[in-house]
Amino acid sequence: MKQARTIVAILFLVVAAGGFWYAFQAGYFSKGADKPGDVTRIKIGGPFELTNQFGETVRASDFHGGYMMIFFGYTFCPDVCPTTLTTISTALDMLGDTASNVTPVFVTVDPERDTPEYLKDYLQHFHPAIQGLTGTADQIKKIAKAYGVYYAKVQESGADAEDYLMDHTSITFLMGPDGQYKAHFSHDTGADAMAEKLTGILAASGG
Q1: Mean per-residue pLDDT for 116-138?
Q2: According to the 3-state scheme, what is the secondary structure of the chain?
Q3: What does the pLDDT read at residue 32?
Q4: Amino acid 37: pLDDT
Q5: CATH number of residue 154's parent domain
Q6: How confident is the model at residue 42 (pLDDT cuts 50, 70, 90)?
Q7: Considering only Cβ atoms within 10 Å of each terminal Cβ, which end of the chain, N or C, has fewer?
């Protein structure tokens, strides 16, 4: 069993890296695009309609006017998702009052299990500003495609129907007040580096 979990973990990292490479090759990122201000011809984001952890309908336009940090994952994720959400939470705490200009968003790639109620309970362990979004399988597929995010169910042979993991791209995207891509953070970005980049972007925009 331990060996099987190790294999699944390695597979997850390989697929996550592959998802990033796919996005890069498809033109989602331009050279040097993770530098503040590099937003030219970035094909990331688009309209969406999902449901938050309070059962309310949420659209992409609701976040316009401020910055949105968006990360795709799922509540049953054993390591990458809680680590990233903790990093985002710490970075926002480091920003202080300016964090009010940034809305962190956690979009599930596992809508079968991640109901609004489940998201609400899960996100209580992280920064209170984080919004959790779920929806139908088609809605999740649409927003994932808009952000170039890969995800797939991984289930061991003979396991129960609800006992599975999700491989998924582990990148956090920063969208600007106009809804356009501003920057991205890899899954191994630390809170200090994330806060520093956010501070620079917010300062440059007067936020």
Answers
A1: 98
A2: CHHHHHHHHHHHHHHHHHHHHHHHHCCCCCCCCCCCCCCCCCCCCCCCEEEECCCCEEEHHHHCCCEEEEEEECCCCCCHHHHHHHHHHHHHHHHHHHHHHEEEEEEECCCCCCCHHHHHHHHCCCCCCCEEEECCHHHHHHHHHHCCCCEEEECCCCCCCCCCEEEECCCEEEECCCCCEEEEECCCCCHHHHHHHHHHHHHHCCC
A3: 39
A4: 44
A5: 3.40.30.10
A6: low
A7: N
Q: pLDDT averaged over the chain?
A: 85
Please identify which residue in the block is written with the tokens 């920057």: 183
Contact 133/52 with Cβ under 8 angstroms? yes
Structurally, how many domains does the chain consist of?
Answer: 1
**Predicted confidence (pLDDT) per residue in 52-80, tens digit:** 999 999 999 999 999 999 999 999 999 99
